[in-house]
Specification:
Radius of gyration of chain A: 23 Å
Structural class of chain B: mainly alpha
Number of helices of chain B: 21
Largest interface: A-B, 89 and 92 residues
Shape of chain A: globular
Strand content of chain B: under 5%
CATH class of the largest domain in chain A: Mainly Alpha
CATH topology of the largest domain in chain A: MetI-like fold
Mean pLDDT of chain A: 87
Low-confidence stretches of chain A: none
Radius of gyration of chain B: 31 Å
Oligomer: heterodimer
Number of strands of chain B: 0
Mean pLDDT of chain B: 87
Helix content of chain A: over 70%
Amino acid sequence: MKKKINSFFVHLELIMVALFVLIPILWIVLSSFNPGDSLASSSLIPKKLTLYNYARLFKETNYPVWFKNSFLISTMNAAVSVVLIMITAWIVSRFHFKGRRSGLIGLLLLSMFPNFLSMTALYTLYLTLGLLNHPLALVIIYSAGAIPYNVWLVKGYLDGISKEIDEAAYIDGCSYFSTFLKIILPMSKPIITYCAVSQFMLPWMDFIMPSLLLSTDNDNTTVAIGLYNMISGKENDKFTMFAAGAILIAVPITILFILFQKYLVQGVAAGANKG
Amino acid sequence: MTKKFSSTILSCLFWGSGQFFIGRQKAKGILLFAAQVLLFGIESVSGYWFNFFAGQIPDFQVRLYGGYFSRGIWGLFTLGAVPGEDHSTYLMVNGIMALMILMIFLGVYIWNIVDAYRTGKAVEDTHAYISSRAFGKKLYQKMFPYFVLAPILFLVLYVVVMPIIFSVLTAFTNYNADHLPPAHLVKWVGLDNFLRLISIPIWSQTFLIVLAWTVIWAFLATFSTYFMGLFQALLINSDCVKHKSFFRSIYILPWAIPGMISLLMFRNLFNGQFGPLNQMLLDCGLIHSRIPFLSDAFTAKVTIIVVNLWIGFPMFMVMLLGVLANQDPALYEAAQIDGASKLQIFRRIKLPLLMKATAPLVLMNLVGNFNGFGFIYFLTNGGPNNSSLQFAGDTDILISWIYKLTLNQNMYNLAAVLNILIFILVGVVSYWNLKGTTAIKEM
């Protein structure tokens, strides 16, 4: 009897928390199907459901272009970051050279510097190089910024792969690079997946860099900026359209997260232990 | 004169000449000399040095006629001389970049001298000449890590380090709304900004109040999510729950949804005037007037903590579930045999083990929340406004205050000072955290 009461309360709590988690999500999903325009009209339970907001998103805004920009930035960023991170981490893990230790600690310190003030400098750098208003140029900042933290993470992972395997390859006549490509990379699939997925997800919702380096001109902006601008006004008269746009982007990212959650969880755990 | 000295002196004047003439390493000597030609080439082509030496410029000024390097360094030191023409921040950024390239050349130069000495000495000692090719092969073997890392290092230097140097230097200038380039010049002011932060009461007060809330927020945010995550993990893990993965996959959703979207969603849900939550509570008759979720200082802080709980607990829950799954049940059985009660087992064995396994994660989360810009910016934008604070709202944390100071008030100098303070704080905490870990020791 006592067990049953216990079980009842445990389940009651679990269901309450599930509702606490689900209700806000349900509300935004329903809002996107709400016929009204504004926040005031999007009550918790709409009276009628419509696809009107999604249609408006494609007719009245440049959503497809923003989406294309964000998608290109993210894909490029995942690829470039993985290459840079893996090469750096491999060198740092496998070769002993002067400046390695201080370089690593320096990297770690760099990753802790808050970056708002760097914006003036980055803006000037982009202006000098003529990269302002090029969405893909953001990849340079994202991938360079990914190096400090992720190199630490991946170095920890590579240190776990026995060096005897590399040495056997060297004896068999493999060069440094072919050992890296044929031995190290295939053995680091989990951490590569983590880096690729996390670097792919990062730019979608980054707000600061695109607002600084891309003009508000509709053709060059990203999804994050486009969505934010819809509801940054006082009137909130595009709220349901924002909801539709947010759903369209949150659904694929959420699915991606859940598909790769094993790697992401491992990555976060490793990151916490390594620094 | 011995060969090592003549070689060194030659290379001091003309890079690589010692290696070329004394060491008979032609390719190496030419490469080093090419570096020198490049350095002087950039400087003279981008400036008017030829015209100056030809006597065509009687009144020589570095500002107008200097090359890339001399003008860059002049700009970094003076930050410009003519308002409206010299753009101080551009000069500063270009100066830092010129100085960085110059440092690289300096490195090559010093290496060139050291190598000239060594080459000369080797010739004296062994009377044999090493060819450039053999030397290159040996160098490649020895310096392989540097060759591979050089381009990556270059990228990090330009995109990550240069902006940080710039923002640190800004703290020592008067770069603010009254001195915005290009119309006005920025000047070096030494430690004035640091002194201002301490000596002007409204600044120091705002700093302390914002810092206090930042610390409170970071601790509340981290530990509320930690304990809720722990509680849910323990409940899901209890024997009577059959559909563990069902609950787990619901609870993971807030972690999976992009943070910015969740935060903007909550901002609208809690909107004081039009928000549906207020409307629903009114309709049900639970409240008689709308609750100012985001516009009253105290309520807004509570709202932020609750929203953070929603977003943050799944991460800890998943992590703790992982730790729980890896625990050895024999440990608890042994305690049970020794006569420990369930509560004792939990408090004395299970909880300490879980805490120990997740301590680094908690610390990382603490630092993340300390700089949790998104939460404040997207949810309340620091509001409600508080006139007794200098450009900060009641819910502003240090990082969002810095954002307002830079973007809304153009007070780059004071923001830079705050930035340095945050950096020191976070750096010390993280260093202390890392000191004992294997990651540092094994390096």
